[in-house]
UniProtKB/TrEMBL annotation, chain A:
Keywords: Flavoprotein, FMN, Monooxygenase, Oxidoreductase
Binding, FMN: T97, Y151, S222
Annotated TM spans: none
GO molecular function: monooxygenase activity; oxidoreductase activity, acting on paired donors, with incorporation or reduction of molecular oxygen
Protein name: Nitrilotriacetate monooxygenase component A
Provenance organism: Nonomuraea glycinis
Family: Belongs to the NtaA/SnaA/DszA monooxygenase family.
Domain Luciferase-like: 25-391
Automatic annotation (TrEMBL), chain B:
Keyword Phosphoprotein part of the UniProt annotation: no
MF terms in GO: monooxygenase activity; oxidoreductase activity, acting on paired donors, with incorporation or reduction of molecular oxygen
Family: Belongs to the NtaA/SnaA/DszA monooxygenase family.
Record key words, sorted: Flavoprotein, FMN, Monooxygenase, Oxidoreductase
Domain Luciferase-like, residue spans: 28-295
InterPro entries: Diverse_substr_monoxygenases, Luciferase-like_dom, Luciferase-like_sf, NTA_MOA
Superkingdom of source: Bacteria
Binding-site residues, FMN: D59, T103
Lineage: Bacteria, Bacillati, Actinomycetota, Actinomycetes, Streptosporangiales
Record bears the keyword Ion transport: no
Protein name: FMNH2-utilizing oxygenase
Entries under Gene3D superfamilies matching the protein: Luciferase-like domain (3.20.20.30)
Length: 441, 386
C-alpha cells in the first residue's frame, strides 16, 4: 500500500540584502522600484506559486563599524509593498517578515488583518524576534529583550494576535440599512489579555478576515524555535535543503506536533532553496559555478574572512592562499546579521579545507558558503524537488532567485510545467486563500 | 487658463461611508462593502476622475465612538477601520496621479516603522505619498498597548496635550531625517570596487529626544519626492505650533470668512511656508438640507463636527470657497457627508463649477503630490554638493 503522492508547495523569495543576490549582472534591476516587486510577484502567480515572501532587516548591516557596502542595500516596509501587490495579483499568497520584538500586537495584528481583508485572504506573517541592542537603537524600547525571552514573547504575541483576530464574532458585521444596525452587539471587538509580556484590553477595529487567522510562518532553527513552530506556526521556513538534513529536521519538527494536538499535515516545512538551470547537466554546473563566482567577488571573500576571523583582513590577497593569521575571538566585526556560531571552530575548519584542497581565499569562501540547492536540467531539478518532498525532506521550497527581478522567470517557464506533468504541482489555483493553497483548512 | 495665484487646491477626506454618522444608511451607500478593497478603489477612482489633489484616509488606534474618550456601545453607526497606510498602498497601483495621504498615529507607534511605511508608499506610488501624523491621547487607546497609563483625556488640558504634540513633532523630525538619510545617489553599483552603495552617502540620523532615540539610517532608499508631504489637522494654538513646525500642509477648521482670516494670521506668524487648507463637512445638492435632516433623524442627533458644516449646492459652495480664499485659505479638504453621493457632487459638480470660474485645474500638471501642491522637492539635508 503506497500513500498518495504529496503535493509540492512553492514560494518565491524576493532577492535579499546578502551576497546571494547578484547585482553586478547587467540583467540585475532595481531592488526598490515597485516594478521589480510586480515582476517577481506576477511571475510567481503565473507559476501558480503558493506565496511571495519578503524578508526584513531593521538596521543596515555593519562590518568593522561601518555600513556594509558590498551587497544590495535598501528595502521597503514589507507589509506596505505586499498590500500594493494585492492590487496587481489575484491568488498569490503575500508573506511578510515582521519583527515581534519591535512591534506591539494591537498595531501589528491590525495591519495583518488589513492585509488579509485587502488581499481577500492571502496574508501571511513570518514571525521573527530580535534581542540585539544594535537593531534596538532604531526603536523606542531599544534592545530590551533577553535572548531567552525571544520565543516567549513571540509565542504570546501570536496568541494575543489570534485573540484580536477572533475578537469580532463571525456575524458581528450586520450593515443592515433597514433595521439601522451596523454591528450586532455594542461590544464588538472587545478583548482582554493578561500575560507575562502583554497586559492589554480594549476594542479591536476590524471584523474577522477572510482567513480568520493570517498564515503564521516561523524561521528559527534552535530547539526553542522548533518548539515555537510546533506550537503556533503553519509553515516553517527552514534552512535544511539537503535530503539528509531535511529529513532529520522534518521528522523532528513533525514529531513535536502531537504534543500540541496537531496533525502532521497542519505544519508545512519549506526550506529555502537556490537553483541553477542548464540545457545539460554540464551547462547547469558551469552556470552554478559562475553564479557562485559573482556572489563571492574578491571584496566579498575578504569580508567573509573578516567576519569569521574577527579582524581587519583588507591587506589579504583574495586570489592568494589563506594567510597564517589567528582569529581574534575577543570581539566580532559584524553587526546586524545572523550569528555564525563558534568562530574558533569555524576558522579551524576553513583552514583545514583550504589546506586540503589548496584553495585561494576566494575559492575557499565559495566552497564553504554553500552551493545552490538544485543544479541541473529542468527535468532533473523538477525530479529532485519532487523526490525531496516525497521523501519527507520538505513539503515544498521557498525559492531564492539570485537576480532581481527576472531570476524566477526561467524556473517558472521550464521547471514548473515539469512539476505539473509529474502530477505534484497545481496547474491552476483551486482555492482563493493562502490557507487553501497550503492545504491548511 | 487657470491663474496660478488663484488656483484652489482640493482634497477629499475619505472615512467609512462618509462623515455623517448615519451616512451608511443612505440608499446609495454600500455599507456591507466597507471592508473590501473594491469599495475604496471606487472612491479613489472617483476622486482622481475629478482631478483632486489628494485624498486623505482617516485612522485611529481604536474603534470609532460617539463619545470623546473611548468606545461606546452603539450599534447603529459604522464601526471598524483598516490601517490607513496599507489601504493607501492597496490603492496606489490603481491610480496614476492623485495624492494618497493616510493617517498614521505617532503616539504608541515606532517612528522608524511609520517613516519607512510612508517612504514605501512614496516608492509604490511614484511620488504621490503624504502622511497625516495623529496623536492618540485617549486612555482607552493607551490600554490597547499597555505600555504607559494615560489619565482620561480633556482636550482643554494643555498640560496633557502639549507633550503629545511634542512627541508628534519629534516623530515627524525623525521621519524627515530618515527620509534624508540616504542621498539620492547613494546607490552606485560600482563593479570594479565591488561596492553597491557609497556608504559616505548614507547617514546616521542620531536623533535623541525626550520620548525616543533613533540611530538610523533608514533601511529604505530615498523616495521619489525626497520627503513625502506631511499634513496636520489643527484646531488650537498647540497644534498650530506643531503644524507650523512640522507640516507642509495644515488643515484648519474656521466657521466663517472672518475666522478663516484670523486663523490664517495666527498661523502665518508661525510659518510663512505651510500651506493652509480649510476643512469643511459638506452635504451637497438642491436637497442637501433635507438629506441632512433625514440623516440627523436617523442618527437621533443633529450632526456635530469640529469643521464647519455646509449644506447647499455646488455653486453656493464654490462661492464660499472663493470667499475664504480671499481670507488666505489656499485649499480645502472636503469631508463628504455621505459617499458616494456627496463625493460625486464634489468630483463632477464642484470641480466643473470651479473650473468655470478659472480656479481649478483641467488636467493633472504633475506626477507627484509635491508637484500638484507647488512644493519643491527638498535636497537631502545630509547630502554634500558633489
Amino acid at each position: 500500500m503506497t500513500r498518495p503522492r504529496k503535493r509540492v508547495h512553492l514560494a518565491a523569495h524576493f532577492p535579499g540584502v546578502n551576497n546571494t543576490t547578484v547585482w553586478a549582472d547587467p540583467r540585475s534591476g532595481s531592488q526598490i522600484d515597485f516594478a521589480s516587486f510586480v515582476h517577481l510577484a506576477r511571475t510567481a502567480e503565473r507559476g501558480t506559486f503558493d506565496f511571495f515572501f519578503l524578508a526584513e532587516g531593521l538596521r543596515l548591516r555593519e562590518l568593522k563599524g561601518r555600513i556594509h557596502d558590498l551587497d544590495v542595500v535598501g528595502r521597503p516596509e514589507a507589509l506596505t509593498v505586499l498590500s500594493a501587490l494585492a492590487a496587481v495579483t489575484d491568488r498569490l499568497g503575500l508573506a511578510g517578515t515582521v519583527n515581534a520584538t519591535f512591534n506591539e500586537p494591537y498595531e501589528l495584528a491590525r495591519r495583518l488583518s488589513t492585509l488579509d481583508h485587502l488581499s481577500e485572504g492571502r496574508a501571511a506573517w513570518n514571525v521573527v524576534t530580535s534581542s540585539d541592542a544594535f537593531t534596538g537603537e532604531n526603536f523606542r524600547r531599544g534592545g530590551y529583550l533577553d535572548r531567552a525571552d525571544r520565543y516567549r514573547r513571540a509565542g504570546e504575541f501570536v496568541e494575543l494576535s489570534r485573540k484580536l483576530w477572533d475578537s469580532w464574532q463571525p456575524d458581528a458585521l450586520v450593515a443592515d440599512q433597514d433595521s439601522g444596525r451596523f454591528v450586532r452587539t455594542g461590544d464588538v471587538g472587545a478583548f482582554r489579555h493578561q500575560g507575562e509580556q502583554f497586559t492589554v484590553e480594549g476594542r479591536f477595529t476590524l471584523p474577522r478576515g477572510p482567513q480568520r487567522h493570517p498564515v503564521i510562518i516561523q524561521a528559527g532553527d534552535s530547539d526553542e524555535g522548533r518548539e515555537f513552530a510546533a506550537s503556533a506556526a503553519d509553515v516553517i521556513f527552514s534552512r535544511h535543503g539537503t535530503l539528509e538534513d531535511g529529513r532529520a529536521f522534518y521528522a523532528d519538527v513533525k514529531r513535536r506536533l502531537a504534543r500540541y494536538g496537531r496533525e502532521p499535515a497542519t505544519l508545512k516545512i519549506m526550506p529555502a532553496a537556490t537553483y541553477a538551470l542548464g540545457d545539460t547537466e554540464e551547462e547547469a554546473a558551469e552556470r552554478a559555478a559562475e553564479i557562485r563566482r559573482l556572489q563571492v567577488g574578491p571584496q566579498t571573500a575578504i569580508a567573509f574572512l573578516e567576519q569569521v576571523w574577527g579582524r581587519d583582513m583588507s591587506a589579504v590577497d583574495p586570489d592568494g592562499p589563506l594567510p597564517d593569521i589567528e582569529p581574534n575571538l575577543a570581539d566580532g566585526v559584524s553587526q546586524g546579521r545572523a550569528a555564525h556560531g563558534d568562530r574558533a571552530s569555524l576558522a579551524a575548519k576553513w583552514r583545514t579545507i583550504a589546506d586540503e584542497k589548496r584553495l585561494t581565499v576566494r575559492e575557499l569562501v565559495i566552497e564553504v558558503t554553500g552551493r545552490q540547492t538544485f543544479i541541473g536540467t529542468p527535468e532533473s531539478v523538477a525530479r529532485q524537488i519532487d523526490e525531496h518532498v516525497q521523501a519527507d525532506a520538505a513539503d515544498g521550497f521557498i525559492l531564492v532567485p539570485h537576480l532581481t527581478p527576472g531570476g524566477l522567470d526561467e524556473f517558472v517557464d521550464r521547471v514548473v510545467p515539469l512539476l505539473r506533468e509529474r502530477g505534484v504541482f497545481r496547474t491552476e489555483y483551486t482555492g482563493g486563500t493562502l490557507r487553501e493553497h497550503l492545504e491548511l483548512t | 487658463m487657470t491663474d496660478q495665484h488663484q488656483a484652489l487646491h482640493l482634497a477629499v477626506a475619505l472615512d467609512g461611508a462618509g462623515w455623517h454618522p448615519a451616512a451608511w444608511r443612505e440608499s446609495s451607500a454600500r455599507p456591507s462593502q466597507l471592508f473590501s478593497a473594491r469599495y475604496w478603489a471606487g472612491l479613489v477612482a472617483e476622486a482622481e476622475r475629478g482631478l483632486l489633489d489628494f485624498v486623505t484616509i482617516e485612522d485611529a488606534l481604536g474603534l470609532q465612538s460617539a463619545g470623546f474618550d473611548g468606545p461606546d456601545e452603539r450599534v447603529d453607526q459604522v464601526r471598524g477601520r483598516f490601517d490607513a497606510v496599507l489601504l493607501a498602498a492597496r490603492l496606489a497601483p490603481l491610480t496614476t496621479s492623485i495624492g494618497l495621504v493616510p493617517t498614521a498615529t505617532v503616539t504608541h507607534t515606532e517612528p522608524f516603522h511609520v517613516a519607512i511605511g510612508i517612504a514605501t508608499l512614496d516608492h509604490i506610488s511614484g511620488g504621490r505619498a503624504g502622511w497625516r501624523p495623529q496623536i492618540s491621547g485617549r486612555a482607552a487607546e493607551a490600554r490597547h498597548f499597555g505600555r504607559r497609563p494615560f489619565p482620561p483625556l480633556d482636550p482643554r488640558d494643555d498640560e496633557r496635550i502639549r507633550p503629545l504634540f511634542e512627541e508628534a513633532a519629534d516623530a515627524v523630525e525623525v521621519a524627515r531625517r530618515l527620509w534624508d538619510s540616504w542621498d539620492d545617489d547613494a546607490e552606485i553599483r560600482d563593479v570594479p570596487t565591488g561596492r553597491f552603495i557609497d556608504r559616505d552617502r548614507l547617514h546616521y540620523i542620531d536623533f535623541a529626544g525626550r520620548f525616543f532615540s533613533v540611530k538610523g539610517p533608514s533601511i529604505t532608499p530615498r523616495s521619489p519626492q525626497g520627503q513625502p508631504v506631511v499634513t496636520a489637522l489643527a484646531h488650537a494654538r498647540i497644534p498650530y505650533e506643531f503644524a507650523a513646525g512640522a507640516a507642509d500642509v495644515v488643515y484648519v477648521t474656521p466657521h466663517s470668512a472672518e475666522q478663516a482670516a484670523s486663523i490664517v494670521a495666527e498661523i502665518r506668524e508661525l510659518s510663512g511656508e505651510v500651506r493652509i487648507f480649510a476643512d469643511l463637512l459638506v452635504l451637497l445638492g438642491e436637497d442637501a438640507a433635507a438629506r441632512k435632516a433625514r440623516l440627523d433623524e436617523l442618527d437621533g442627533a443633529e450632526l456635530d463636527s469640529d469643521a464647519a458644516i455646509f449644506t447647499g449646492t455646488v455653486e453656493e459652495l464654490a462661492d464660499l470657497l472663493i470667499a475664504w480664499q480671499r481670507a488666505g485659505i489656499q485649499g480645502y479638504r472636503l469631508r463628504p457627508g455621505a459617499v458616494p453621493y456627496d463625493l460625486k457632487q464634489i468630483t463632477r459638480g464642484l470641480t466643473a463649477e470651479l473650473r468655470g470660474r478659472g480656479v481649478f485645474r483641467r488636467a493633472y500638471e504633475s506626477g507627484t503630490l509635491r508637484g500638484l501642491l507647488g512644493l519643491p522637492r527638498p535636497a537631502g539635508r545630509y547630502a554634500e554638493v558633489r
